[in-house]
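Sequence dictates fold. Next comes a concrete instance:
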Amino acid sequence: MQIQGYFDLRFEAVRDAFAALFDDAQERGAALCVKVGGETVVDLWAGVMDKDGQQAWHSDTIANLFSCTKPFAAVVALQLVGEGKLDLDAPVARYWPEFAAAGKQRISVRHLLCHQAGLPALRQALPAEALYDWQTMTSALAAEEPWWPLGEGHGYAPITYGWLIGELIRRVEGRGPGESIAARIAKPLELDFHVGLADSEFDRVAHIARGKGNLGDAAAQRLLKVMMSDAHAMSTRSFTNPPSIMTSTNKPEWRRMQQPAANGHGNARSLAGFYAGLLDGSLLDAELLGEMTREHSVGDDKTLLTRTRFGLGCMLDQADVANATYGMGSKAFGHPGAGGSSGFADPERDLAFGFVTNNLGPFVLMDPRAQKLARQIADCI
């Protein structure tokens, strides 16, 4: 496999570890970018980007990064907090009055950001096309009764997070959340990152496909068992209502929409650049970054059925939990995306990491490929 790009010679072992990913015949395409102290020390890509395996992954290939998108939305919300336009502990209904329905009047902006609001799924079955109708989805969530009482734990909101945080941003800013992310984050930092992709960019988007034969770790199997056996379970509904959530990745309408929980499109450079921007103070001041990366929710996740730990819109490291560590320092924060892509910062090493793949693994939380690369990077520093 021909590996393209650049690496600082201290990180030759990282290049070798990246190349070793392609020893697996199912591997398709991937990119890795690492910045230390704001300087790029690794920027690699390899493999194929198209459905038929004929088109090489290029320097400017981008891919759907799934939940790696969530921290971008959270940072916009936190910037609004810094500007006095949002209050973390104000009720969501202050900005979005309809949200108070069905006993949600006490749910705060903070509860939404750290997955404690009890809204990871919708009970009423929605048609597939509802996924692309912002008004339908936000109205359904405003009317939804929480799945558990406030203060009784947390449950990850895989996709509803995007409408919840996105509508909050839209109400305060008067523009789509993808436009806010572009104006506040991507443009200032010159990141090739998009929530709401222009049709003119479609030809450089990697086709996403699922690997075959690997059932994943125990957490993945536990979740799969519930999803296969109970269509009405909250975990099942969170991934399958509307039923198009899991099947839309490569569709034009998915790429075009602004869904800041799951449909960000970017490359490894954009993830590393985003976390470098958090570490150097370009995006948030120290106080707000401290708030974002402080532990808010920890323990058994009601949706993912595995142990999770969250700040505000970011997933915090759990060094002693195999599927929940980034593979570096215990203060690391960031977010994995479904199937393997991952972005995070390790403040102790002043390091920003981005890994992007179009071959979806079956894991919940962290993918072993990204962990392996992170451990190799740590060894080189």
Notes: DSSP finds twelve helices and 14 strands in the chain. The two ends are 26 Å apart (CA to CA). The first strand starts at residue 4 and ends at 7.
